[in-house]
Each structure stands twice: as C-alpha cells, then as structure tokens.
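Today's session is about reading a structure prediction critically. Students often jump straight to the picture, but the first step is always the sequence itself: look for stretches that repeat, for charged clusters, for runs of hydrophobic residues. Only then move on to the predicted structure, which in these notes is written as discrete structure tokens rather than atom positions. Here is the chain we will use throughout the hour.
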Amino acid sequence: MIEANFYIGGHFLGSETRQPVNNIYSGECIGTYPLADNDLLSMAMAAADEARMPMEQLPVYRRAEILDSICLALKAEEATLSETIAQEAGKPIKQARAEVMRAEQTFRFAAAQARAMEGASIRLDAAAGSESKYGYFIRVPVGVVAAISPFNFPLNLVAHKVAPAIAAGCPVILKPASYTPLTSYLLSEIIAMLDLPAGGFNLIYGSGHEIGMGLVRSEAVRAVTFTGSPEVGLEIARNAGIKRLILELGSNSAVILDKTAALDTALPKIVSGGYSYAGQVCISVQRIYVSEEIYTRFIEPYITSVKMLVSGDPSDEAIDVGPMITEGEAMRVESWVNDAVADGATVLTGGQRSGAFYEPTVLTNVAPDMKVMRREIFGPVTCVIPFSDFDEAINMVNDSPYGLQAGVFSNNMDNINKAIFGLRVGGVIINDVPTYRADHMPYGGVKMSGLGREGLKYAIEEMTDIRMIVIQR
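Below is the predicted structure for this chain, in token form.
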C-alpha cells in the first residue's frame, strides 16, 4: 500500500481528502493520494517561484550529477516501479519494465545534455555600422515549468518533462494523471533524497480543470509541457497567455507497406506497434496501408499474429495486452467499432469487449471519415487499407487532422524519398513502425498533433531563453 503525498518546497505534505488507487485488473486498493485545492496550488507555485534563482544558480555540473543520481536510483527501484506501473496503469509487466529502463535512459540523456548546453558567438561586424562590436548568446532558464503528464507512460513521460527542466535550471511543478499518481510519488521520494534546491521539484495532484488549468493560467508559470488530447491542448493554448507551450496531442498514426516491403520484418513490428499497452500509446499503429500486390500475403499472417496475442493480468509475464485504463474507455472503443461496422466496415478478428478489456481487433473495408480512421482511437484496434499507387498511399496518410509520426516499409529508394519529403508528420520512420521512439531524438508533431518538441536537447531549448550579449570594443 502506497500512501502518496504532495511534495512542495522540499517537504511532503498530506491531506485529509484522499482518493483510493485500485489495481486495474483485480480492483484491490493499492494506495491513496491527496487532492489539492487552490491553497495548495498557490503554495506550490510560490515554492517554485522562490526556487527560480537557486535553480538558475545551481552549477551545471550539479544539475547533471542530480540527474545521474536519479537515473541510478530508478535502476535500484526497477522492480517496485515496474510493478506499480503494471498495477495502477494496467500495463503488462514486461512493457512496464521496459518503460522504467527508458526513464533511466531519459534522465541519463538529460544529464549529458545539461553538460553540453552552450551558446554561440555572433559576428556582429558582418553588419555595416557594427565594426566595433562583438557578441555572443547564452541560454538561460525560462522560469517555472508546469508539467502535466498522462496516464499511459506514468514514469517515462514524466521524465521527459522533469529531466529537461532540471537540466535547464527551471523549477518544475508536476501534476500527474489522476489514474496513475503513485509512480510519480515514488519518483518524488527519490528526488527528495537529493540536494536539489527546495522548490526545484514540486508534486501536486488534482483535477485538470481546476489544478491543471490553474497552473496554465498562472503568471508565475513560464512554460507548460503537456501530453494529452487535442481538445485539452486547445484549451491550454487559449488560456496560457504568453508562455512557452510544448504540447504533444496524439495521432492516428499510419504505416505504409509497398510491394517491396520485407513482411517477415514488418509483421511483428506492426503487431507490437498496434497492440502494446492495448493501443493506448500516442504513436500506436492505427492505419495500415498495404500495396494491393502484397495484401493477401500480409493480411492472413497478420490476423493470425493478432489472434495469438494473450490478454489478462498485467502482472503476468506471459500477457501481451492488459485492460484499458477504464471500462468507460473500452466502451468508447466498442462504440466506435460498432459504428464503423454499421457503416460497412468488416471485423477480421476481435471486436468484443469484456469489462475494461477490448479484444485486439482488425478492421477492413473502412472509410476515411469513420471515427476509427479519422480520430485517435487510443485502443487495441487497427484498420487495414489496400492501395494501388504509392502516391495515393501518401495522400491517404496525409488526409488526417493529425501528424505525429508515420512508418514506411519499403526497399524502393524512390518511394522512401517520396515518403520522407511527402508525409506531413513530425517523424518519418523508415522500415519500422511510427511507434518507434528513441528518447533523445526530437519528438513531436504537426497539425493537431501539437507544438514544440520533446527529446532532451530539444526540450531544454524549449525551456530556456536566448540572452544576447553585445559588447562595444
């Protein structure tokens, strides 16, 4: 049983108002957490604001040492963190374990980037009239960062917000998803043991409407990093005022297989990319465009592979697909699939719900305007669409309000180049699925998929301002 608390200004604080956290699979209570009110929110913002100068003055080598220490502590607590993620998020234990290892890597990358952060000199005498001047710029912390994280990666997506803030010298206030508060609390216990300035890291819990939007509207907050839905992202943009926004807002990610695709390589990657964590991944495979010339060779083994996925208790090592985060989310997916079938789609496998479990499902005969194609389904459902011309496939991928990442399986350089320069997405992944992400690469999208970039170097740039220095000789 984990009794989570707030962490504000270097101190753990409790509350009489507490909420239970239940094991998604068994329903057993595994912990509790407190809910913040406006007074607690004000306290956290004041603590972070007071930490601005101590964080800015913290030498870079100390920031890096702290980040390295967090990495080592996460490694020491891998078993506890993995099991907590499996229980509160419903993520299969082998995938939870992989997330913890990625989070360790994310903090390690942040430490390296903190040490590598630099400015540049500017040849001012390139401008007529500036012959007697020289200049350079440095990067300085933007100020307090509000980090609003989702449930689906309760440790690594928190790391992608907290680690660059510390590296940049910014105080951070973390508000994790209410579905997964315990993992963030375990991280706060690790950070509390280190000599980060008081208020440099703060943890609060509460509703997105009250606490999350309170952070967004605050004049003390100078940057907001958020992962979630486009609807909430738009609301953040409307309310934030003039501050930095890093918004990762999901996708209906697509993969293209042309006639030269190596199916033995592509098939297992697409199955994993479509159904890991029950499809509750921002870059989960949702739309699969297959050349008509290989469609039959693809679809039969693909259906067989999807049918072999094992659903059940996330704590079981043999499980591939756990429950969705709530039964309500599984019911939403069920409704979208039923709507598609009513409009002419065909279920090739799956299509049934049991409580919070939704069967791994494959659809075909889908139309571009169906919700299962147009919107982010965020569930274990993929749609398979044949195409006759590669340019047509690119156009179909681009016919989307989203643009996070896309995958292309091909051994044809002309098609690969067409994809690289023709796909309107933030990342084009060649001979792999759009679900691929290395934690140090620039990661983010275009269109409704968001603003700004994660990836440690790029997030640090988002969380710092350029200060130009001009000197008269």
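Discussion point for the tutorial: The first helix runs from residue 38 to 50.
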